[in-house]
Amino acid sequence: MDEEARYKAMAYGPLGAAVKAAMPHTEADPLGVHAAALALFSAAINGKVMQPDGRPVVVWTALAGRSMVGRKGFALSTAEALLADAIGEWLSLRRQGGISSGPSLVQTLFETEQDSLTSEGGLDGRTLVIDEEWPTTLQLTKRCPKYSGVLRTSWDGKRISNVTKKDGKRVEITVNEPSLGFHAHIQPALWSKFISATEAAGGSYNRILPVMVERSKRLRRRDYKTGNPLDEIKVSASLRLAYEWACKETRHMELSDVSADRYDDIRAEYEDALEELPEDVSCFIERSGEQVMRVACVLTAAERKTVVTVKALNAAKAFVDYSVASVKQLISQSNVVKSRTIEPLDVKIRQKLEMYGGEMTSTQLYRALSSRYTAAQILNTAEDMADVVIVQERVRRPGANPVVFRLVKVLPAPHPVEPVEPVKPPARKRTTAKNAVVPARKATAAVPPPARTRTARKAPAKKTPAKKTAATTPSA
User: Fold this and answer.
1) What distances in angstroms separate CA 61 from CA 12, 43, 64, 343, 398, one per listed residue?
2) Of all residues in the chain, what percent are helix, strand and coil, respectively (each to 5)?
3) Domains of the chain from N-terminus onward
4) What is the pLDDT of residues 307-355, one digit of tens each?
5) pLDDT at residue 83 in the model
6) Distance in angstroms (rounded) separating the CA atoms of residues 365 and 353
7) How far apart are CA 30 and CA 214, in angstroms?
8) What is the C-alpha separation between 180 and 186, in angstroms, rounded?
9) I need a labelling partner for 292 at 20 to 30 A (CA). Which of 156, 177, 220, 272 fits?
10) Could you tell me which of 220, 216, 206, 109 has the C-alpha nearest to residue 158?
């Protein structure tokens, strides 16, 4: 489905018209631009426009898209461009970066209120947190147990506080009616790493509407007079008038009889869907009914009206439905990643020991693995590993002797030699003389013995006669 068909159902009023008018000049996803515009504009009218039950109308959104391909930054920049004439000045003064702890969030909202006391309008704590590196902030928020609670309470518009000490005295900082807006960016692959179903079950993340985004098109820069095609976006005068209308006095939204019936049907539809969904999915979308009301009130306020129509509810539901589909997609991708990356504890222990040169103290090993495992689990697993030795070294210093986990080489066990059974000769059959069978001898022809070879005798040597010599007589 192309971008126009996907966005058509949720484009409503001046806000929807402004997004559609900006699309020819941006590569962002129209749903991403719409989500960012809802977060920015609702933060600007937060505390000025209220739901029928008196709760805030602020809408928190998070764009989930791959780096470069998702064009998350393009979506935010496009929303800022089309709202520049309406809330540009307010946005430059009230915009904050990522806040990673509960006390710092309370302190930021408190200081914003105190700074506004000297302004002409009086007390005004409206603040918008825009976190384009949300995974980094989420990694830090895990260290603060108060962050999730403060975040949830701020979405509800209820009192938040923090206790500090100054000059040895206990000082409590309180914000009675926090007016906090929120918009963030995250990569889908990092969703499961930093956002778990356990935290969502407590309500930390079902107050944020995640929206999957992707690039809508590629623009040819040579077709534009300036290097930035967003400069061609025309600001919306209707949204500027709507912002001025909202700030004049507090506006309370209402539902007509027809729209009230439609809203009851929407709530029933979401509740029925929650019963069929697994808990790891339903915990992210438990507040879909109220999210529809908030989005519809923002769309209605952009029209400078206080009665929410059925069309506004249907457009808001189309946007929330897309967010629900985005949650399911993010969780399905997370399950695939988990199935590929989860390793048993013994493998992780071995990897950590190899990383530290084959030896780690118990403190080092527990810190390296304690984010998911307890000390008892690590110790019991290491004791069962054949290539890990646990020793307690004695040191000449006060304090307990350190326990050391050491990786050793395990020689392969020799293969056992199976005893070879002696081969027994086959048993000879006993035969009686009567039945004995005597094998017949093979008849062979008589072979005469080989003739003896005679050697020729040598002829006897002839005797030569002795020469006669004359006898010599002695002379007289």
Assistant:
1) 18, 11, 10, 33, 55
2) 45, 15, 40
3) 3-341 (3.40.50), 345-407 (1.10.10)
4) 999 999 999 999 999 999 999 888 877 555 444 446 788 888 988 888 7
5) 94
6) 8
7) 9
8) 20
9) 177
10) 109
